[in-house]
């Protein structure tokens, strides 16, 4: 051991990682296993850390070069009837314009309905304000009458003051 020099000693332990495969049967390149490095320092403590796996070389993907004068850029694919791409065909311009007009009319109608509801709410708020004002004025009148009655009763029940 090199403990007398103060340099740590490293022990590398491989960790196995399973290979991932696609359901089509083709396999990805297996990733190299992570390696765990254990180092012993001069103080005697073990430090364990994972090291990044080495980069594997990949097969380069070929570029698709299509000449300008090629008759078709990409062949039109036909999908089986149970495929979702075949079940949702593209809409024509007329269909999209009709959908746009329908949505616009629906939004406008919703706007008008909301305006009517807002006007109804405003009228209800004004009615509540007038009712509240009436109740407040009636409450003040009642409080004034009660105050007068208690004063008159207190004047009648008290004997006159002697000087």
Written description of the protein model:
The protein is of the alpha+beta class and 163 residues long. The protein is 42% helix and 11% strand. The chain is built from 2 helices and 3 strands; from the N terminus they run E-E-E-H-H. Strands 1-2-3 form a 3-stranded antiparallel β-sheet, with no helix packed on it. The chain is elongated and about 125 Å long. About 3% of the residues have low confidence.
SSE arrangement:
Layout: E1 9-14, E2 35-40, E3 46-51, H1 84-87, H2 93-157
Antiparallel strand pairs: 1-2, 2-3
Name the descriptors.
163 residues; alpha+beta; 11% strand; elongated
Shape: elongated
H-E order:
EEEHH
Largest sheet: number of strands, sense, barrel closure: 3 strands, antiparallel
Give the end-to-end Cα distance, rounded to a whole number of Å. Answer: 119 Å
Strand content: 5-15%
Q: Decide which structural class fits the backbone.
A: alpha+beta
> Low-confidence spans: pLDDT under 50, at least 5 residues?
24-28
Cross-sheet strand order for the largest sheet: 1-2-3
Number of continuous helical runs: 2
The helicity comes to: 40-55%
Estimated radius of gyration: 45 Å
Mean pLDDT: 75
Number of strands: 3
Please summarize what this structure is:
By secondary structure, the chain is α+β, with helices and mostly antiparallel strands. It is built from 2 helices and 3 strands.
